[in-house]
Amino acid sequence: MRSLHSRFILTSVVVVSICLAAAFFALVQIFAESYSTRIQNELTGHINRLAAVLRFSADGKVQLPENPPDNRFLLPYGGLYWQIDDPVGKVELRSASLFDYALPLPQEAHPVGVMHQYRLAGPDGKDVLVQERVLLLAAPEGKRPLRIAAAVNADEVDNARAAFALDIMPYLGMLAVLLVLMSIIQLWIGLRPLNRIGRDLEAVRDRRVGRLAGAYPREVQPLVDRLNTLLETQAAAMENARGRASDLAHGLKTPLTVLANNALTLREKGEGEIADELDHLADTMLSHVEHELARARLTPSADQRSGDADVAMIVDETIRMLQHTEAGERLSWVAGLEEGLTAPIDPHDFRELVGNLLENASKWAKSRVAVTAVRREGFIRLVVEDDGPGVSPERLPDLLRRGVRLDRLKPGSGLGLAIVSEIANVYNLALTLENRVEGGLRAEVACSDPLPSPET
User: In which band, very low, low, confident or very high, does the pLDDT at 231 lie, cut at 50, 70 and 90?
Assistant: First the structure.
């Protein structure tokens, strides 16, 4: 389980369940003990009232009270009982509620005045809770000890305990739901700064901002500060690396130009073989330098782009620039560009991609170059077509190889489509090159559309 929300909610459910279960058993136990204490106090009161109304006749016999302290003593097996044992007079008196049953009180002797509690077998097959006390009462011959016991059905406590448990269950269930909901709300409020960090990082990735801004809680601020430091360090390192690569490429380009001029001088002096070898070496090294210079200008990854590209604007600007070149002036340019298309590609890289595709098309086209950009099936599709001679099918894969020139009479370094291929790899674009049925080359670049299609 990798979600913090799921872990927290599961933990909250488990903890709340354990705590409320413990609270449930504790409350039931407290209630049972309280109810038992009340029953014991009630039985003690019955014993005291019985002792208060007991009388001895002149001949020393214990006389039954005319009016029992509780009418439940009159109902056979009614649940409330009393019993008086007179060890001296060998008499056992019982309440009418005991009917034909005698409580099996223990036979051992008890100190006078000390209360004892038992759970004994009672009438009608039910257990009873018994309280018993030995009291000294005034008899004609003097003080006489009497065992006075009062009892109540034990299931009265058991039933009260079960009823209380059933009564509080719904309330504890509602309390559990409330506590879990409060935990979820607490989690939602507590994790909002982390959600904000996620949104801010998305903005940094989309290059809408350069760092995490705004005030964060002090517990989260150290993380934000470290992320900002990392972003700044990474940006500085990338810029430094690209600058050094560009400086190195430019530094090598000047000596190579001198080398090419030296080859020209040797050719004029009749050293044609050496001049050709120097030209070949200079062209090869210059191709490497120009390629690395172009790569140094590219964004290292899609997530590090400076923003998104306005497709129509960049294509229009590139066409207008090429229309002023020698090759572009003689061509008819046809553009079908859907407005509002935004490609998730760095604008500089997209400009490089479009420029190389259009420049290649203008170099080979006879009279016409057509460009279309549309949103279709969740993709933005850019298509560049020319009416040139096309390429033999077996040579199509070679177009994307660095430094390959199918016709050395045409100007160029053979890097244009190779750079297009590298940009496609960086941004995971689908690049397709194929011959047109009507003649000429068709190049298509497709990228995912960050916006939903109008059809959906």
Answer: confident
pLDDT tens-digit profile of 3-59? Answer: 777 888 888 888 889 999 999 999 999 998 999 889 899 999 888 888 887 888 777
In terms of Cβ atoms closer than 10 Å to its own Cβ (0-12, 13-18, 19+), residue 414 is buried
* 276 plus 349 within the same structural domain: no
One-letter amino acid for residue 225 of the chain:
D
Q: Which helix (H) or strand (E) holds 374?
A: strand 368-376
CA-based radius of gyration for the chain = 50
Q: Which of 40, 130, 141, 124 is nearest to 85 (CA)?
A: 130
Of the candidates 143, 159, 175, which is a domain's last residue? Answer: 159
Provide the domain limits for residue 108.
6-159
Place of tokens 């979820």: 184
**Residues 6 or more apart from 111 whose CB is under 8 A from it?**
134
Q: Which two tokens stand for residue 352?
A: 């490089």
Tell me the H-state helices in 404-446. 416-427
Rounded to whole angstroms, the Cα distance separating 361 from 73 reads 114
Amino acid symbol at 267: R
